[in-house]
Design a protein that fits this description.
152 residues; globular
């Protein structure tokens, strides 16, 4: 996750490949939290054509003093995961997805070692394929605190 202590990055010194396929696999599964801040909530609301306060418990839920995107209790699906008419599952707010989603798969948990990366890649068809990220690009994403920390 962002701002976590640096893992032993030696194993990915030569970089890693990743290209999001927008498959939706990272938007479902075991219960968890996709934290959103006030700025992200405003961006999501605007994208959906709602007022700043237009997101309801159907979209966000309180978690202590923070907020997280809401999940379906039975499936673990993010409330913004939709199925297209052609059957593809995808993120309906992809252009304004939260930082936590934007920095996938460059999370500390996935970068601990080769085995952690391999395990995550087993559920993500975009990992180890597509765009090459060098060590610096990975570290920028791993440590980002805001959207502005990420390259355009």
């Amino acid at each position: 996750m962002p701002n976590a202590p640096s893992p032993n990055g030696e194993w990915y010194q030569d970089g890693l490949r990743f290209s999001c396929t927008q498959c939706g696999d990272c938007c479902t599964g075991s219960p968890g939290f996709v934290y959103v801040n006030d700025d992200e909530i405003r961006k999501i609301a605007a994208f959906l054509g709602k007022s700043d306060t237009g997101l309801t418990r159907a979209h966000i839920r309180p978690v202590g003093k923070q907020f997280s995107l809401t999940e379906d209790r039975k499936t673990g699906d993010c409330c913004f995961l939709v199925t297209t008419p052609k059957g593809k599952r995808t993120c309906s707010i992809y252009p304004v997805r939260p930082l936590q989603c934007r920095t996938w798969p460059f999370w500390i948990s996935n970068l601990e070692d080769r085995h952690a990366w391999k395990d995550a890649a087993g559920a993500c068809p975009g990992m180890n394929k597509g765009k090459h990220y060098d060590f610096v690009q990975i570290e920028i994403r791993r440590t980002a605190d805001t959207w502005e920390d990420l390259p355009s």
